[in-house]
TrEMBL record:
<dbReference type="InterPro" id="IPR015421">
    <property type="entry name" value="PyrdxlP-dep_Trfase_major"/>
</dbReference>
<dbReference type="InterPro" id="IPR049704">
    <property type="entry name" value="Aminotrans_3_PPA_site"/>
</dbReference>
<dbReference type="InterPro" id="IPR015424">
    <property type="entry name" value="PyrdxlP-dep_Trfase"/>
</dbReference>
<dbReference type="GO" id="GO:0030170">
    <property type="term" value="F:pyridoxal phosphate binding"/>
</dbReference>
<dbReference type="GO" id="GO:0003992">
    <property type="term" value="F:N2-acetyl-L-ornithine:2-oxoglutarate 5-aminotransferase activity"/>
</dbReference>
<dbReference type="GO" id="GO:0042802">
    <property type="term" value="F:identical protein binding"/>
</dbReference>
<keyword id="KW-0808">Transferase</keyword>
<dbReference type="Pfam" id="PF00202">
    <property type="entry name" value="Aminotran_3"/>
</dbReference>
<protein>
    <submittedName>
        <fullName>Acetylornithine aminotransferase</fullName>
        <ecNumber>2.6.1.11</ecNumber>
    </submittedName>
</protein>
<dbReference type="InterPro" id="IPR050103">
    <property type="entry name" value="Class-III_PLP-dep_AT"/>
</dbReference>
<dbReference type="InterPro" id="IPR015422">
    <property type="entry name" value="PyrdxlP-dep_Trfase_small"/>
</dbReference>
<dbReference type="InterPro" id="IPR005814">
    <property type="entry name" value="Aminotrans_3"/>
</dbReference>
<keyword id="KW-0032">Aminotransferase</keyword>
<keyword id="KW-0663">Pyridoxal phosphate</keyword>
<comment type="similarity">
    <text>Belongs to the class-III pyridoxal-phosphate-dependent aminotransferase family.</text>
</comment>
Length: 313
């Protein structure tokens, strides 16, 4: 690895030159069948012609527009994403961590705008990963990432997974929301039981809390459903997305119901690059493909084959 890079990664020595579908091709011509997919990012493989076409067309039109102007690609993406799930509104960012920052801000602001400014703490779960910004590291609560960076950002209380009584006991007068990955990614692809997700939803309804699903890794058709929570039949108030949403082009999104986003007025949040025309065009091209029922059914069929399970339609 070049000494000119901040040494925070220790990459494999192979140097890739390009990708074709599910294959990565090294500079020396060796071909690798890629099961890593950029850690759940290259959901449609490499150089997908529909995505390349969208990027090239948009690249000749407009790359960047400030959010002081309307961005038609972002508007279309927001309309399509919200029409496909529980949400009414979307905010676009450039990464997963930023999408989660927005989710955290929406949850805190919701209670503030309802006259409950003391409710700003968020319950998260053991084994979680929500990103590497200061707040999302604190939300994840992993000492390995937090050590050496000063006091963790305050406002996160961690609970064990699958233990609803522990969560009940943790909810206090300052709790604003619960935040969970329906399938934990970084801690080893650990699905959270649908029953536990349902219990969390019930607890939120009972105590006036918001439920945040981090679907950055498990969303965008990864489970054979557009969003993982749709298989569980449990609906959040706020959901973060990134990774597969851009098929490799950086984009994150935070989706919310209008009720949850109450309090997010002009000026409450922002991003220079979030929702730019290039990212919007590529993410719309990703949606053209993954929103197709046939594609989702094929993902479920292949998943069943790999797991050796009988295939469910
Ligand atoms: C569940 C989950 N949340 C958040 C993130 C952070 O996303 P990003 O690296 O794009 O900031 C990740 C990244 O691996 C993730 O898997």
């Amino acid at each position: 690895m070049s000494d000119a890079l901040l040494p925070v990664f220790s990459p494999a020595s192979v140097l890739f030159d390009h990708g074709e579908g599910a294959w990565l091709v090294a500079a020396n011509g060796e071909r690798y069948l890629d099961f890593g997919a950029g850690i759940a990012v290259n959901a449609l493989g490499y150089s997908h012609p529909h995505l390349v076409g969208a990027l090239e067309r948009q690249g000749r039109k407009l790359w960047h527009l400030s959010n002081v102007y309307r961005i038609s690609e972002a508007e279309r993406l927001a309309e399509r994403l919200t029409a496909a799930c529980f949400a009414d509104v979307a905010f676009f960012a450039n990464s997963g961590a930023e999408a989660n920052e927005c989710a955290i801000k929406i949850a805190r602001r919701h209670h503030h705008a309802h006259g409950r400014p003391e409710r700003w703490r968020i319950i998260t779960f053991d084994g979680a990963f929500h990103g590497r910004t200061l707040a999302t590291m604190a939300a994840g609560g992993n000492r390995k990432y937090l050590d050496g960076f000063g006091p963790p950002v305050d406002g996160f209380d961690q609970c064990p997974l699958e233990d609803i009584e522990a969560v009940r006991a943790r909810v206090g007068p300052r709790t604003a929301a619960l935040m969970i990955e329906p399938i934990q990614g970084e801690s080893g692809i650990r699905p959270v039981s649908h029953g536990f997700l349902r219990q969390l939803r019930e607890l939120c309804d009972e105590r006036g809390l918001l439920l945040i699903f981090d679907e950055i890794q498990c969303g965008m058709a990864r489970t054979g459903h557009l969003f993982a929570h749709q298989e569980a039949g449990v609906v959040p108030d706020i959901m973060s997305l990134a990774k597969g949403l851009g098929g490799g082009f950086p984009i994150g999104a935070c989706l919310a119901t209008r009720g949850a986003a109450f309090g997010m007025r002009p000026g409450a949040h922002g991003s220079t690059f979030g929702g730019n025309p290039l990212a919007g065009a590529v993410a719309n091209a990703v949606l053209d493909i993954v929103m197709d029922d046939g594609v989702l059914a094929e993902i479920r069929r292949k998943s069943a084959l790999l797991r050796g399970l009988p295939c469910r339609p």
